Amino acid sequence: MSAAWLPRFLEAIRAERDAAANTLAAYARDLRDFAAFLAPRGLDFASAGRADVEAYLVDLDARGMAAATRARRLAAIRQFYRFAFLEGWRPDDPGALLKGPKKPRSLPGSLSEADVDRLLAAAETFGRTPAERLRMACLMQLLYATGLRVSELVALPAAAARGDPRMILVRGKGGRERMAPLSAPARAALAAWLAVRDAAEDAGTRDGRPRSPFLFPARGRKGHLGRERFFVAIKALAASAGLPPAAVSPHVLRHAFATHLLAHGADLRVIQTLLGHASIATTEIYTHVLDARLKALVLERHPLAGPADELEAGGA
Q: Which of 86, 179, 238, 288 is deepest in the core (most CB within 10 A)?
């Protein structure tokens, strides 16, 4: 009977939270791994208890799983059993009081403004055809100008780009919508790509192909540029710009967007809104870039401040 629990749980997550396909796949993968751990012990989702969940966490640690991975899998199990309890499938919730390992609060990788300039310049000549070069330039300008998640960027509708917009409407996690301002270079790159994209769509229509609703159409199952394909392309772009590919990804550009805004005086709440974070706590990880600016502010603007070297000599 409990074999049917997982599909119903995933369907509920999809319907209630408008969860992305990648999120659902992660839940399914984590919970199936837990089920595979239970099976040799003669257990399933219905018969496992709190001690079995704890044993699974110990097993993950023994397998060398990172703390972040263990914390994520416990979170999936807890949500799954909370759902099972509320649905009446189980009389108890074996995951309710369990606490997992804390995720390490590591600083996100970022790039300097000079590094980003090199990437943006390289994007203008990256590609075999003029259309490919315009598309990459548009992708990179939009990514750095807006801080979009890669899944949000590749799935942008073409309608969002019509009319030389100063802002675009973005549909993010959980179906939440937000407005993302566009810089002048991003608007120029967007207009140049849109003209080429529309011409290709017009030609396709004459050949009997339906028009794509996406800004970056592709022939794959999703109908738009895949995040995996863009991830590979940005690595190659980094190499062509003379940057280490391992240090560059769409997510790193999102971090660069936030870090550079904060370094230039943007309010943390504004950055939270622009990034689409549900909680300010998620955005606070970027405050590491404030250290030097706050120190300079005290040294230069405090009414009792003397020469900077005198203040610094007084101790930390």
A: 238
